[in-house]
Each structure stands twice: as structure tokens, then as C-alpha cells.
Amino acid sequence: MPNDYRCFLAIDLESVLIGKIEEIQKEFKQTTNNIKYVEKENLHFTLKFFGNINKNKINNITEATNKVLANIKTDTTNNPKETQLTLKGIGTFPNKNYMKILWIGTENNRFLNNLQKELDLEFEKLGFKMEKNFKTHLTIGRIRNLKNKKEFKSKIEELKNIKIGTMSISKISFKMSELTPTGPIYSNIKVFNFNS
């Protein structure tokens, strides 16, 4: 067993939206570009990437996450609409001219922004750097080589305002990532439910 584990905190995509994401991936598969698409079981919104950490850090992160969630559970119970997340739009990171990540965005969500900020403040106390420009997004592909950049940009322009659907933020998952030659394998260390 390794001493360090590659870990991150995430919101899993609801299963009802997976089919719609796969349809969008198919749209891009029709282009003549080399893109590694994220498998349906690995689709998620990253709240915090921790990198390689040991068991002590895992325990500390778990305690910090529990602390934050304990303070916001009342809000989610009183106003469940705040936890509704709408997936909308397509873009690339880091920018339109140098494209490495293909993502689906979300409409601005005050609850999620506040959750991420409160978690980040606690994680900073554990020695992790604060996120400078956090943007909620769902990575659907990693761009290896754009054989036809014009074609690719045209497809993004065509789908840039597409509305995928809405899901509820009911839990967050503390995950471990094992890197393999065929791609990463994710497993849950702990799932935090808002309503428990």
C-alpha cells in the first residue's frame, strides 16, 4: 500500500444527466481531433484537488469538511432551491487559443460558491493553497492534438450556450485517484451527505 494518495474533493454528476453529456461528447467525436474523453463513471465537479497526501492529511481534511458542512446544513434544509445546479455552456481551458481542457459550465450558484470558499478557508489552515480563480466546471475531455482547430472552434461556438439540465447538490465525495495506463480509477474515501 502506498504512503501517499492522490486525492480530491468533488461533486458527482447525477446519473440522469450522464446521457446528455455523452451526446455532447459524440458531437465532438465527429470532429477530426485527438481528444481523450472522460468516462461516464468519472464525470464530476472538482471542489478541491489536494495532490498526493498521507493518511494524517486525509483525516484532517475529513474533519475540516465535516466542520464546514455542519454549518451549512441548516441552509440547505430551509432553502433546497439553493442547491439546484444548472449545467449550461461549453468552453475550454486555459483559453480559446491554447485549448487543453474541454468543459461544460454551470449557471452561477451562490450556495456552491459559498461552499467552495468556506472549504477552501479550512483547507488553507491545513497548508493547502487557496484557489485564486475558482470556476465551477465539468471536464468532459482532455485535448491531446487539434488536427483541425477551426472545426473544433466552430463546434464550441455551435454549442456554447447549450443547456444540459439541472441537478441537486445533495452530497460531496472525498475521492482517491489511482493513475493507470488506460486512465484514472476513482474510489470514494468518504461521502458527505448534506441531509444526514
SSE map:
Layout: E1 5-12, H1 15-29, E2 34-37, E3 44-53, H2 55-78, E4 84-94, E5 99-106, H3 110-125, E6 137-145, H4 149-159, E7 163-168, E8 171-180, E9 183-193
Antiparallel strand pairs: 1-3, 1-8, 2-6, 4-5, 4-7, 5-6, 8-9
Helix pairs in contact: 2-3
Care to describe what's here?
The protein is an alpha+beta fold and 196 residues long. The chain is 34% helix and 39% strand. It contains four helices and nine strands, in the order E-H-E-E-H-E-E-H-E-H-E-E-E. Helix 2 packs antiparallel against helix 3. The longest helix is centred in the middle third of the chain and has 24 residues, at 55-78. It is globular, with a radius of gyration of 17 Å. The model has no long low-confidence stretch (mean pLDDT 90).
List keywords for this structure.
single chain, alpha+beta, globular, Cyclic Phosphodiesterase, Chain: A, 196 residues, 4-stranded antiparallel β-sheet
CATH third-tier fold name: Cyclic Phosphodiesterase, Chain: A
Structural class: alpha+beta
Strand content: 35-45%
Q: Regarding CATH, which class?
A: Alpha Beta
Q: Indicate the CATH architecture.
A: Alpha-Beta Complex
Q: What is the first-to-last residue Cα distance?
A: 32 Å
- Strand arrangement within the widest β-sheet reads 2-6-5-4-7
The run of helices and strands is: EHEEHEEHEHEEE
Q: In total, how many domains does the architecture comprise?
A: 1
Main sheet summary: 5 strands, antiparallel
Radius of gyration: 17 Å
Q: Low-confidence stretches at least 5 residues in length (pLDDT < 50)?
A: none
Q: Say which CATH homologous superfamily is assigned.
A: Cyclic phosphodiesterase
